[in-house]
Write a structure and sequence with these properties.
mainly alpha, 71% helix
Length: 277
């Protein structure tokens, strides 16, 4: 007599078949979705930026000291009105630049030098994903900066002229400036040596502090100089923030245009010229 064997999968006492067990433990290699890789990398970048003492000094301590020091003393001529009202928009712009340009350029430059970016380049994370993750981390730090600086300014008597339309304009200016500075930082860090990036980023920081209208309006400059610095992203951001927060009026369309052009050109060049090593 021939035995009949059933093709029905066997089941364990809890009703689970052998085939389902095989499916459960079968390897399924593959990259995670792009958004999950970007989110994971952005979280790691944010933790690194918050733990780095030098970057914390550059992004938090220096802007706060400038705001408090020049608001309580009359060393600089900041124009009419309350000193804190004139200084706060410029210090906010400086904080955005310090995080999204200076700190990002220096940090990425040394990551590239020590081979960190080379190892990231061997992962499924794309070049665009790395740029997006670093930009998201910068936005996280900037949210903390803006909160702290606004709190310090309010304690010093700052009274911004802000309505819902102005709040939207400020948000758009900050996002455009972040995109512009971040793309320029990654372009510098991805093409120059780490030492050159360190020197260049700090030099740009000092020059923009003096020429970008951060501590005093650029209207005090001679005519040709004022026109030349008006096309800089820090000047566009500072003038736009002052127009909204001090004057209570919408910023000139030129501020948005300058920041948008810098963002587009910087992002295009960074995406094409950035090298992992």
């Amino acid at each position: 007599m021939t035995e009949h064997t059933s093709s029905t999968p066997t089941a364990d006492p809890v009703g689970r078949s052998a085939d389902s067990d095989a499916d459960l433990f079968r390897p399924d290699p593959g990259a995670a979705p792009a958004w999950r890789m970007v989110a994971a990398q952005a979280g790691m970048e944010l933790r690194i930026m918050l733990r780095h003492g030098e970057q914390f000094l550059l992004t938090m301590v220096i802007p706060v000291l400038l705001l408090v020091g020049f608001s309580l003393t009359s060393v600089l001529d900041v124009g009419g009105g309350e000193r804190v009202d004139a200084l706060t928009p410029g210090v906010l712009a400086l904080a955005v630049m310090s995080t999204s340009f200076t700190g990002l350029a220096i940090g990425t430059g040394f990551e590239r030098r020590y081979g960190v970016l080379k190892r990231l380049g061997a992962t499924p994370l794309s070049r665009f994903g790395l740029l997006a993750a670093k930009t998201l981390a910068v936005l996280g730090v900037q949210a903390i900066q803006v909160t702290v600086l606004c709190a310090v300014g309010l304690l010093l008597g700052w009274s911004p002229s802000l309505d819902p339309v102005g709040a939207v304009a400020v948000l758009v200016l900050l996002l455009l400036a972040t995109a512009a500075f971040s793309s320029l930082a990654l372009l510098m860090a991805g093409t120059l040596r780490a030492e050159a990036t360190l020197a260049g980023a700090n030099l740009v920081y000092v020059l923009m502090l003096g020429l970008g209208g951060v501590l005093f309006p650029t209207s005090s400059f001679p005519g040709p100089v004022e026109q030349a610095v008006s096309v800089l992203p820090i000047t566009a951001l500072t003038s736009g923030l002052r127009a909204v927060l001090v004057g209570g009026s919408p910023p000139d369309a030129a501020a948005f245009t300058v920041l948008a052009v810098w963002s587009a050109v910087g992002a295009l060049l960074a995406s094409r010229l950035f090298r992992w090593e």
